[in-house]
Predict the structure.
Amino acid sequence: MKRTGILLAFLLLAETVFAQTTLKEGVQMIKDRYGVTFIYDPAINLDRPYAGEKLEGKSLQADLRRLFAGTDISASAKKRQVVLKKKQRRPRRADTSLSEVQLLDSALLVDWRKPVLSHPGAGALGISRTTLDEFPVVFGEKDALKMLQLLPGVQAANEGFSGLSVRGGYADENLILLDGVPVWQGEHAFGLFSAFPAEAISDATIYKGNYPARFGGRLSSVVDIQSAPGNSDSLRWGYTISLLADKIHADGPLGKRLSYSVSGRFLHTVLAEPVLALLDNKLNYWFYDVNARLDWKAGSEDLLYLTLYNGTDWYREKNTAKKYQHTYDDNYAAYDIWTDDIGYEGLEWGTGLAALHWNHAENGRTALSWSRYNMVLANNSQYLTNDSDIHVSKQENRSETEAHDDELRLSTDWNLGPFSFGGWASLHGFHPGGSFRESRLYTDGKKDYWWRKNYSAPESMTAAEAGLYAGAAVPFGHGFTASPGVRLSIYGSKDMVYVYPEPRFDVQWQGAGWTINAGYSRMTQGYHRMQSGFTILPLDIWRPSGADVPPMVGDQFSLSGCFAGLEGWEISAELYYKKVHGVTEYRNTFPSISVDYYDWSEMVVSGDGTARGAEFLIRKTSGPLTGWLAYTLSKADRVFPDINDGASFPATVDRRHRINFLASYKMGQRLNMTLSWTFASGAPATVPERYSTMGFYSSSMNNFRLPPVHRADFNINLHSPCRKGTRTWTLGLYNLYGAQNPDAVLPVSASANSYDTCYHPELPEGTPVLERWTILTFIPTISFSREF
Amino acid sequence: MKKQLLTAVIAVVSLCACSERPGPSMGWTAQNAVDKLCGRYEVESLTWDGPEADINGDGIIAPTHLEELLQGPWDGIQDPGGPFVYVTPASELGKGTNVDAHLFIGFIDWPVKYSLMTLKYEYSVSESGEFTFSQHHMNDLAFTSPLNEDHSAGRFDGESVYLDGDILVISGETSFYDFAEGKQISGRETYRFKCVSTKRRGE
């Protein structure tokens, strides 16, 4: 009773205290409670007493309505941002003056804090969650990796797919980090989508050059993705329903110190699977991914958080046939056999990741992580045989090929004033495809026959990687900063240990709105991803360097200038030259690896490459219209002693010109539109010369230039506040004018049979040809999101 | 609501349960007729309307034409057990299916060695179980004359194949060399074959 009285007294006191507070303190309370940011013109006076009702915390909208009730301030909330503006008498049309409109807009937008693109340093560009929400999407899925493809120097490794090619590098030369932990297979749907839905990340930064010493392990780029942190204020949740996938996201507190963030996504087809299976539907594909983060504030300066990710793709093909056979024995006695054939082919692959992080203040970050990529290719068949209703037999055949990679990694990064240092160590196990086949026969319910054969897996490989780094940012002179660094990378496998010092140096001058950088970076890569097809496929395998295939080493020089002296505008240009050694190509010029192939090193050859280019970027960073125009002039070559008789040939990702345009226009708080257009010169491709049982062969690689690719995408977001939270309709048009781009280019053998996919009656049967497929043409999308 | 749900469940279960069991593509009538026709046939009788003759060159004229032929001499050690026929089961309506008739129709060596040579006929079945026999183009076999290798000594024109009840009849104009008279003779051979396959499983 006494305790209840004290509690009531406390509540009464709290209410009394709050009743005497100001709007500003109310704003702060809402910020703390809901984790939102307020955007408002400084001319709006919030140091006014608040005499309204108590903010009960039922919902953000309810608290905002109460706080500003009876004032001349209106508040509108969009996701985590609340925009305040002064209520104005709606002018009659005749009264509207340009100056008034401009004043209103500038009040609203000068403080718009999230530019479409952030520029954290030379060679680096960052995108925020806000940008992702507005970006045109394919199949209704917002995709961070596809967004990055619109930046200068970055392109799709394959048009329309998630893989990145940065400054002449191949898709496997990008280090994708989720909270600092490498993700080895970060794609769904054969590369159509990246593994990270927009809801699960807070921002993504790509480093194309001038790499800080803490990053390494890949030649061409580092994509640093930060997961969405836990929310310690109140429960928020939302869902999205789009044409293909459904998503749900929730974050909130779990007590005083714990908070969480969790998001999940799955294709609609996973729900339809039981029905499809019942209807004997021939095939189905689905994927799901779950991102979760649990934050624990261990102290005022220490944060421990656990990041979990699991994504799985699943494909199955089921063929059923009811067969009847009227047959005879040696005495010409006729009898009937009914057979139910059920053929099942399944492919399941996915990535799991668990990482425990410890962040100490702003200075230190330590992470212990484990990640696994798993792939299972299964083939099952079942034959039910009914012999004239006298004998019933069942034969079951099963075969499976399985492969998985595991990585255990410990890394730590520390900052002490201008100095940074750290280290990492990892063990990586590669377990390539062991397989088995087995067959069982049951006659009249009794096991009649059983057979199993295990096909020994190629030898598992273990590779270790470790290293140390140190760097500094030392100001000197007038506006100069020198950032020297060095990284010592050690790659070890069973038969070889490689040690590489990787010097990094960047010098920067800042003044009068200008930022000039000149830098040099060495990057190394001890792992090779062997592509098994034209795009990223689950059958691709990673292999560590060894005595036969050494690590890749790249040296990059860059010079960049950025002018931000014009308010709302930023203009930058960057030149780079990159020399790489030890890059690999297939010996016979066509991807031909299989997951259970034993000696992969026999199939590839090592060589050198160069990439050079100039990147230009003009950005409009404020106002209702924001966006950028980017132009890249680039050239990427390869020289391999064993290919093209040692002559130089263009790299598969070589495109001379690339233009990316993106404009995002906000019409108030309820509507925003985004239009993007991209153009790129044609990429080279290899026309096969002959076909044998070993596959296609050509004596000259990349001997043909494909036509240019271009497309425009459009996106419109309609936001409307609800009694609780907001709802958003997103309408998108991918490839607006239906450009017939070569999304896939495949070598095929010509066939005179019109039933074959490679039907070419004009050519002799079996002639190898290069066939171009356009997969991603005009695609309208629609999605609905609701946030509470 | 419960009723609707129950109806839906029953409908789905019925759909799964009532999946039709496939049967013969030609229909049961034709299939039964084929089952009855196919099998191994052995000769019941052989009639010859030509003159009695020493066809096998052993200096003796056997009481019947069939015995004359059965007494050989045979090709090497082969003793095929007499003329016989295999009728292969038809699997489709209207499609030519083999009737392999092994008959005495040839010298394979001189002075005289007999062999059962295979004559190929075909039959097809209609949906109502009616059979149509056709003569194979390779059935007109010419024999080399021992007197004059440049001239035909005889032939078997097996132009007639039909069913007489359960009996398969193959008939043709035939020529032989009569060692007794030293001349070529001709007449019509009519083989009547009876099915000997038991058509009982496991026997």
Observations:
- DSSP finds seven helices and 46 strands in chain A.
- Chain A touches chain B through 14 residues (CB under 8 Å).
- The mean pLDDT of chain A is 80.
- The helical segments of chain A are 2-19, 23-34, 60-68, 98-109, 129-134, 144-148, 268-278.
